[in-house]
Amino acid sequence: MNLFNAVAILLSLALGESFSPHHPTSSQVVRKNSAVTELASSAVDTSTTTVNNMPWTMNTEKYGEYDNDVQHVDWGFAYSSTPPNAVDSYIIDDVEGEIPSDLSGVTFYKAGPGNFQRDGRQYEHVLDGDGFVFAIKFQEDGSAKYTGRFVETEYFLEEQTEDKIKYRNVFGTQRDGGVLANAFDLTLKNVANTNVLQWGERLYAFWEAGRPYEMNPDTLETLRSVTEDGPLKGLGGIDCKVRGITIDEGGPIDNIVKAGKSFTAHPHVEDEETLIGFKIETNAQTKFMTLEFTEYDSKWNEKKATSFSVKDSLPPHDFSVSKSYYSFFDNPYGEMDNMRYLIGLKAPTQIMQLALRQPTKVHVVPRSKGQGPVTVELDHSYFCIHLNGLSEEKDGKLYLYSTGWDLTDERFFPQSQDSAPFLGAWGGAYPDFTRGKVPPSLLYETVIDVEKGTVVSHEEVRPGIVIEFPTQEEDKPNMMYLAIAAEEYTSLPSSGLCRINTETREMETWWADNKQFTHEVVPVKKQNGQPGSWLLTPLYDAGKRRTTIAILDSEDFSSGPVCRLNLKHHVTYGLHGSFARQSQSVVSDSLPAL
Questions:
Q1: H-state helical runs in 154-227
Q2: Per-residue pLDDT reduced to its tens digit, 436-457
Q3: Within 10 A of 43 (CB to CB), how many other CB atoms are there?
């Protein structure tokens, strides 16, 4: 056992054999979902087919076929590994419709997991997949060029060379050999699969439990970082093996064990001169989790930094920025048995539990000095997945829009229990919707009176509409775009897109063809004084076994794509993306948000 692993054991033990991110409270959350169950039951379409013991029926013509009522063949195809011929660069020659001329000079980037096997062994969880990035470059001659490459981290290259799982992963994949092969090794593979963003003419692939990896914006070649600048500044040495956990906050012990900070996978663009992200560290001795919100100029120079610390909490996946505040949800987690992770029995997320009887907190951190942070509590348990990147302040109140799970939904979170497994239903080759394990993601508006420190309201924007991956128009943050799955709380794969005006709550929808699965929309503001945006999004076409890049017009949304770019192959169902203009260093992150 080397020095790093020996000290890493002490680090884990310092966290304690078990760890509860939120101390239990005597308060009981509000139970309010009998109506949800009734609505879902009423959503049955007699023309559809029941698969196994699904709690609702599924239209197999729409969502794809099953193999012996077990394997969801078509939805599973969306999560199959990206084929070798996707690692390529070519002009897309299969184009339906006309590419809008003012997209010339725009590059659309998309990141996600792209490989799920080594030596014939399937990864245990889709989110352990090796990061793959593709780019669609709209050229001056009116054509579009595809380029795709894996993010060649040192972990990826080593495993690719040996065709073997060499590292432990966050969501469940471990080395062969059981406990003896995995015990006391806290090095987790950086899969670099969550987001991709170009800023200041530099392109980075992000994964929130590690450091970003720089890529060539044109060729997508992974660059070997030798200087700790840009988003790498202040994270600790490039060779750090343990990220997000520190012992002496960058001191000699951290240097010995190679521990350092991690960087969010969801940096947000505020304007042409401001990108905002945060660095993450949890002190193993004090158990304080610290987020250092950092604002960068267009050249990746740090403009300002604001730190916020809270004890016994876990870092957020996403956050939101308003004129005066950084805001994020502090999701309710239960006790974690760290010993099972330490001795190699489980991966980190496999020891995590969602606390069903603890109210969810929201932290509001001022961007300027002179005002202290504010923490408020919802009256029930809620799990936030994504937030609108840019939030609004109106009449002294902060308006947040988020997608997430209602932890009081009895169908997925039995209220007779105090806790439920975290992301357990996402294990395996793809998220399995057929057995009622994947909860529906809903869009919520949370209004906070910051001065009074109270929650004014927390309610669904469109009750029962199952949606994910919120994005916003550049100059109209109230216009949100999401992938839509179903109505009446029915949890299914996304097969449509929707546009919601958060001020009026009006919604427009467009539904894809059968066996096509939808994803995040990236709005690109039109040029030459035209109103609205071009909307870029991938369609995962299981019927034709390929991926299509669709272009929609925000001003005629419900009519669907004005142009389709059909790739020669498929790419795996992704996570997040962005766009950049050739003539500018300005980009837009897709989420102003997974």
A1: 154-162, 178-182
A2: 678 999 999 999 999 999 999 9
A3: 15
- Please tell me the distance from the alpha carbon of residue 88 to that of residue 541, in angstroms, as a whole number: 20
In tens, the pLDDT along 11-67 reads 544 444 444 554 433 333 333 333 333 333 333 333 344 444 444 556 666 666 655
Q: How many CB atoms lie within 10 A of CB 100?
A: 19
Give, as one character, the DSSP assignment of residue 320: E
Which value, to the nearest 10 degrees, does the dihedral of the CA atoms of residues 573, 576, 582, 585 take?
A: -170
- The four Cα atoms 263, 265, 269, 273 give a dihedral, to 10 degrees, of 30
Distances (CA, A) of 160 to 119, 126, 150, 155, 157: 10, 18, 11, 8, 5
Beta bridge partners of 67: 71
Amino acid (1-letter code) at residue 335: E
Residues contacting residue 504 through CB under 8 Å, at least 6 positions apart: none
The residues near 408 (Cβ < 8 Å, ≥ 6 apart) are: 29, 30, 31, 32, 33, 356, 380, 381, 415
Q: How far apart are CA 307 and CA 406, in angstroms?
A: 30
* Lateral strand order in the sheet of 202-206: 195-199, 202-206, 213-215
Determine whether 119 is exposed, middle or buried from the number of CB atoms within 10 Å of its CB (0-12, 13-18, 19+): exposed
Buried b (16+ CB within 10 A) or exposed e, 46-67: eebeebeebbbbbebebbbebe
**Closest residue by Cα to residue 115 from 104, 101, 126:** 126
pLDDT in tens, 76-127: 899 999 999 999 999 999 999 999 999 999 999 999 999 999 999 999 999 9
Question: How far apart are alpha carbons 589 and 594 in whole angstroms?
Answer: 12
- Cα 342 to Cα 154: distance, rounded to the nearest angstrom: 23
Categorize the per-residue pLDDT at 424 as very low, low, confident or very high, splitting at 50, 70 and 90. low
> Residue 343 in 3-state DSSP?
coil
Nearest to 451 by CA among 380, 407, 398: 398
Of 142, 137, 280, nearest to 218 by C-alpha is 137
Polymer length of the chain: 594
Return the closest-CA partner of residue 287 out of 257, 309, 318: 309
The total of other beta-carbon atoms located within 10 Å of residue 31's CB is 12
**pLDDT tens-digit series, residues 264-290:** 999 999 999 999 999 999 998 899 999
**Phi, psi values for residue 112, rounded to 5°:** 175, 175
Strand duo 268-271 + 274-283: pairing: antiparallel
CA distances from 274 to 266, 267, 498, 522, 527 (A): 14, 11, 28, 19, 21
336-382 pLDDT tens trace: 888 998 899 998 888 898 999 999 999 999 999 888 999 999 999 99
Determine phi and psi for 210, rounding to 5 degrees: -150, -160
Q: How far apart are CA 86 and CA 255, in angstroms?
A: 39
